[in-house]
Design brief:
Strand content of chain A: under 5%
CATH class of one domain in chain A: Mainly Alpha
Order of helices and strands of chain B: HHHHHHHHHHHH
Shape of chain A: globular
Low-confidence stretches of chain A: none
Number of helices of chain A: 11
Largest sheet of chain A: none
Oligomer: heterodimer
Low-confidence stretches of chain B: 1-13
Structural class of chain A: mainly alpha
Number of strands of chain B: 0
Mean pLDDT of chain B: 83
Helix content of chain A: over 70%
CATH topology of one domain in chain A: MetI-like fold
Largest sheet of chain B: none
């Protein structure tokens, strides 16, 4: 177990390095540069000024050198200055915005797990009855419909028709509700579908029959015997779920005007803000890789049959 | 279920009956059929957009900006006074084109790579699986947005971006299938009869690996449509003035307080399209999986 965990942690570094390299190559292999006068927010500068700027940011050096410099500095936690927000370092921006995205993401994920499990269990226990149809339809909508479309419907329903929540902002917990729901519906749908399928299987298993035969009531059978086993395949989903919530937050944050990292992601890309792009991609990447690791280890803890 | 397989003299009749079986089961699934009908309708709308749209999608009318739905404009007008109804009709064209077209590219890249990796094995396989793993670690949408913002908006670039990222899943599927099938007796048999590398792979292994690929493609279509909508929503997808539903939602949502119709109608169109493909895809998966029933 310890051995497995250690090797997985050691694998994180090469994975991140590969990600940094791919991002770096895509950025530099495509036409256009941050100094290009056509780039958004750039000034039409004279060639000399462009040269000076390139020298200042190290963009005039050979690519491999640039990459090595980036990696050495990044390892010390220095991602440089943003090209677009010139007065701020990338580190500052990330430290300011990432916690907000993290809060939104965690709330969405918590809602997705709790809601998804509830819907899945209800659907399995009342198979082919109203509860089943209701939760399967909700799950399908959540899975199929993009979150920015869901966000539009949520605003229409819960800000206009029933004026319960504001349409955007991030000042009070009341602002948090709609973005969290919009972001949670997709993972909730996936979790509900999986829980339903694995609950249906477990409910018919011999050990559930035994538990019933011993005279246990319906509630302890479902919660103590069935759910514990049905939960295991659902845990594997959590890894990709983090990715879905992470990338989903670009859209949700921009619709609900949440001051998180998601908005910076798109802005930095269209503005060719190289240091910002690298930092945002790597922050997401590192976070996802770490969460995948946690999920894999958790899997082993939950299912004693698994040995590493 | 298919216990008659051993008695059937030819493999050919078996494969064709699997497909016929699948079609029969699909046609019994009411949700899948209604999804299919909507998809056919959307395709027809996309093809005949020129005939169906009352106005050209570029026709501006600065006297009538942001108008709510009315007799003249059934779905209202947008920020430039263009007819929303006509723009919605043309929007179907982009969605269908991207959904179906991107899958052709994804299959053309993913299937050969997956098949080669699984069939040849060894160092080629090791290299390809490592590469696939790295690509998998990348959040897909993040990578697509990165590629798009670097290449610039436009339909061709959307195909490139989806093609570059989408093949990974299909290659993985194909590889797993080919790995399992190449050890089967009938492949050994064909090899013993003198079939060469190409013939073995194309005639014997790939046709038997087809079912999961077909299922992956049916789910890949809505994913590509979603990707285009998402890219256009944040402004790195389709170039204006070509209308795309995602772009209309993206622009309209900024004015949702004052002009709800700008983003609500395209949102409904995206939702219906995605749900139809999901129902149809679920139906195809259930129909082609003989383990169910």
């Amino acid at each position: 177990m310890f051995h497995y965990a250690l090797s997985r942690v050691l694998w994180l570094l090469p994975t991140l390095l590969a990600m940094a390299l791919v991002t770096f190559l895509v950025m530099h292999a495509t036409p256009g540069s941050p100094l290009d006068p056509v780039a958004e927010g750039a000034n039409p500068l004279s060639p000399e000024a462009q040269k000076n700027l390139a020298a200042h940011y190290g963009l005039d050096r050979p690519l491999h050198e640039q990459f090595v410099i980036f990696v050495t500095k990044a390892l010390q936690g220095d991602f440089g200055n943003s090209f677009v927000y010139k007065t701020r370092t990338v580190r500052e921006i990330i430290l300011d915005t990432f916690p907000i995205s993290l809060l939104l993401g965690s709330m969405a994920l918590a809602l997705a797990v709790v809601g998804g499990l509830t819907l899945g269990i209800l659907a399995a226990v009342y198979q082919n009855r109203t509860w089943d149809y209701l939760s399967v339809s909700l799950a399908t909508i959540g899975v199929a419909v993009p979150n920015f479309v869901l966000a539009v419907f949520l605003i229409i329903l819960f800000s206009f028709i029933l004026p319960l929540f504001p349409t955007g902002g991030w000042d009070s917990p009341r602002n948090w509700v709609l973005p969290t729901v919009a972001l949670a519906l997709a993972p909730m749908g996936i979790i509900a579908r999986f829980t339903r399928a694995s609950m249906l299987e477990v409910i018919r298993a011999d050990y559930t029959l035994t538990a019933r035969a011993k005279g246990l009531g319906e509630v302890p059978v479902i919660f103590k015997h069935a759910l514990k086993n049905a939960f295991i395949p659902v845990v594997t989903l959590l890894g990709p779920m983090f990715a879905a919530v992470g990338t989903g937050s670009f859209f949700v944050e921009s619709i609900f005007r949440v001051p998180g990292m998601g908005r910076f992601f798109v802005l930095s890309m269209t503005g060719r803000d190289y240091p910002m792009i690298m930092a945002v991609v790597l922050t997401y990447g590192a976070f996802l890789a770490l969460m995948n690791l946690v999920v894999d280890l958790l899997y082993g803890v939950l299912d004693p049959r698994i040995r590493y | 279920m298919r216990s008659d397989a051993a008695t059937s003299p030819e493999t050919r009749t078996r494969t064709s009956s699997l497909w016929r079986d699948g079609v029969r089961r699909l046609s019994r699934n009411r949700l899948a059929v209604s999804g299919g009908v909507v998809i056919v309708l959307l395709c027809l709308i996309a093809i005949f957009a020129d005939l169906l749209a009352p106005l050209p999608y570029t026709k501006t009318n600065f006297g009538r900006l942001n108008e709510a739905p009315s007799r003249d404009f059934p779905l209202g007008t947008d920020q430039l006074g263009r007819d929303m109804f006509s723009r919605m009709i043309y929007g179907a064209r982009v969605s269908m084109l991207v959904g179906l077209g991107a899958q052709v590219i994804v299959v053309l890249i993913g299937v050969p790579i997956g098949a080669l990796s699984g069939y040849v094995g060894g160092r080629v396989d090791l290299f390809l699986t490592r590469f696939i793993d790295v690509m998998y670690a990348f959040p897909r949408l993040l990578f697509v947005i990165l590629v798009m913002s670097m290449l610039g908006a436009g339909l061709t670039n959307i195909f490139i971006a989806i093609g570059l990222t989408g093949w990974v899943g299909i290659a993985r599927q194909t590889r797993a299938q080919v790995l399992a099938i190449k050890e089967k007796e009938f492949v050994d048999g064909a090899r013993a009869l003198g079939a060469g590398f190409n013939r073995l792979l194309v005639r014997h292994v790939l046709p038997n690996a087809l079912t999961p690929i077909v299922v992956a493609v049916t789910f890949g279509i809505p994913e590509a449509i979603f990707t285009e909508a998402a890219l256009s929503f944040i402004g790195v997808g389709i170039n204006p003035p070509t209308p795309s539903w995602g772009q209309m939602v993206g622009e309209g949502q900024q004015y949702i307080r004052s002009y709800w119709h700008l983003c609500v109608f395209p949102s409904i169109a995206i939702a219906i399209t995605m749900l139809s493909f999901t129902f149809f895809g679920d139906g195809v998966r259930d129909a082609l999986d003989p383990k169910l029933e």
